[in-house]
Amino acid sequence: MDNITQLVLQLEKYNQAYRAGAPLIGDDEYDHLVEKLRTLDPGHAFLQRVEPEVFSSRREIRHPVPMLSTEKAYTKEALARFVARVEKAAAEIGLQDIRLRVTVKLDGLAGRDDGDIFVSRGNGEVGYEISSAFEKGIVPEGGRGCGLGEIVMLKSYFEKHMLGEFEHPRNLVVGIVTSDRLNEHVRKALADKAVHFVPYANLTAWEGSGADLIRDLETIRADLLAGSDYPLDGLVAEVIDRRLKDHMGATSHHYRWQIAIKTQGATAVTMVAGLTWQVGRTGNITPVMEVAPTNLSGATIRRVTAHNAGMVSKQQIGPGAEIEIIRSGEVIPKLERVVTPAAAVDLPRACPSCRTRLEWQNDFLRCPNSALCRCQVIQGIVYWFRTLGTADWFGLKTVEKLVDGGYDSLESIYAMQADEFARLGFGPVQSVNLAEAVVTSRTKAVEDWRLLAAFGISDLGKGDSRKLLGFFTLESLPELTAADIVKIHGFGEITSRSITTGLAVVQATFRHILALDFNLIRTPLAAEQEKIESPIKDKGIVFTGKMQQGTREEMQARARELGARVQTAVSGKTDYLVCGENVGASKLAKATKAGAQVISEADYIHLIETG
Question: Which of the residues are catalytic?
Answer without folding.
Answer: 105
